[in-house]
Amino acid sequence: MNVRRPHISGIAIAAATALGLGTLSACSDDSSAAGNSDKFDVVASFYPMQFLAEQIGGDHVNVTTLTEPGQEPHDLELSTKQTAELGETDAVLYLKALQPAVDEAVDQSGVKTKIDAATLTKLEDHGDVEHSHEGEEGHAEEEHSEGEHELDPHVWLDPVKYAEIAEGVGTAFEKADPDNAADYRKNTEDLVKKLGALDTEFADGLKNSRTKVFFTNHAAFGYLAERYGLTQEAISGIDPESEPSPARIKELQEEAKADGVTTVFYETLVSDKTAKTLAQDAGLKTDVLDPLEGITDKSKGDDYFQVMEANLTALKTALGTK
User: What share of the chain is helix, strand, coil (3-state, %, to 5)?
Assistant: First the structure.
């Protein structure tokens, strides 16, 4: 995954700007492509947006996604066909600054309803998320020098912030497709309730642990760490493919000893080579902590909630919860 964006005014802007998105239905056959259905057609940029659209839209929406299962979202380049479909859909749901190719295509498309999830909650600077995209939209006025940071986009890994986004998407669906507004409202309420229960489960499960520090392949878990009083130490910055310096590796080895770290987490969509090398050199274990950028047959679950449950189990083991 990649990186973060500027402070945006939040839910107020979102509800006004996001008037109508469609929904995506994880179908991949041509008959369900954007513009080919009698339902409310929504194009989602990647899995966390797709999941929201499907859960909130239910039977009323046809959801397609720009990022295929197993594809690293940050590296996405759009095909001519995908770009054309954007212009035919009823709505697009995306997270600005995570995927520059999507931002550009959305800006150039004629789609009526554009829902930017980054405007539906407050993005934050987690410090260790370094700028990895040149010229990302929304940051044109900032010159990022080395060591500067930008806002972290991985908000879906915090159930509370993800619920805020869900509420904004629900409002947008209601405005864009008023005939089905009551169902969108109920589906949103149900989803927000489930996310609230997940938040409680994480808070209770991680409350008492031997250590609060965990190592990850890249800096995707800043919101989750902040929500539950943990400290994320990333081998790389926001870009999962960037190589850490020898100094960074040595620093992590020393920190592992000082803070009682037992595990180096890696993820399913990028190489685990660096994580395993660090673990071997420092005498640590490895395990998967899934940033939920996509669901594949390697994922420890079939949807957002199942994978988040697996993440909680992995964290409890690594942190030594009591």
Answer: 45, 15, 45
